[in-house]
């Protein structure tokens, strides 16, 4: 679990501090353990090195929350995104997900652009961030796959 936390610290520490919510090591590790025990921790590795990971939480009634979606800054490429999104799409189809929800700090402009590019819409706004929602159905999964193929390095 430490390598996941190390990736979080590398990519999210400054953003979290800027938002006034510094990363709490124990909370993050507990969340990772829970996601792993629920088979909702997905990762991309190459030659044993962690390039990216995502974790989900079942909210019931077809709703799923994206707990984490983290990619190493030097590994943001079609391979990494393709493998990670492939795992996520397979899981979401298997469980019959209808809605995907994600929270993003306002200070994380890169993630905000990424969510919008994937078709997420802002459903709530708070002083620190946004709640994004994506309706998951057969008409959205295929366009999502097309979007993934078009991701450029400047919009990760």
From TrEMBL:
Cleavable signal peptide: none
InterPro entries: Acyl_CoA_acyltransferase (IPR016181), GNAT_dom (IPR000182)
Keywords for this protein: Acyltransferase, Transferase
One Pfam family of this chain: Acetyltransf_1
GO molecular function, one term: acyltransferase activity, transferring groups other than amino-acyl groups
Origin superkingdom: Bacteria
Cross-referenced SUPFAM superfamilies: Acyl-CoA N-acyltransferases (Nat) (SSF55729)
Occurrences of domain N-acetyltransferase (ranges): 1-137
Protein name stated in the entry: Sortase and related acyltransferase
Protein source organism: Gynuella sunshinyii YC6258
């Amino acid at each position: 679990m430490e390598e996941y936390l190390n990736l979080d610290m590398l990519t999210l520490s400054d953003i979290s501090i800027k938002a006034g919510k510094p990363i709490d090591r124990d909370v993050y590790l507990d969340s990772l353990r829970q996601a792993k025990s629920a088979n909702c921790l997905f990762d991309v590795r190459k030659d044993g090195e962690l390039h990216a990971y995502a974790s989900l939480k079942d909210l019931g009634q077809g709703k799923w929350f994206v707990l984490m979606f983290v990619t190493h800054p030097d590994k943001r490429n079609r391979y990494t995104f393709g493998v990670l999104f492939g795992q996520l799409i397979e899981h979401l189809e298997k469980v019959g997900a209808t809605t995907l929800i994600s929270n993003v700090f306002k200070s994380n402009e890169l993630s905000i652009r990424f969510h919008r590019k994937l078709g997420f819409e802002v459903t709530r706004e708070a002083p620190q961030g946004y709640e994004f929602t994506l309706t998951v159905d057969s008409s959205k999964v295929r366009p999502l796959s097309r979007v993934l193929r078009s991701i450029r390095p400047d919009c990760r």
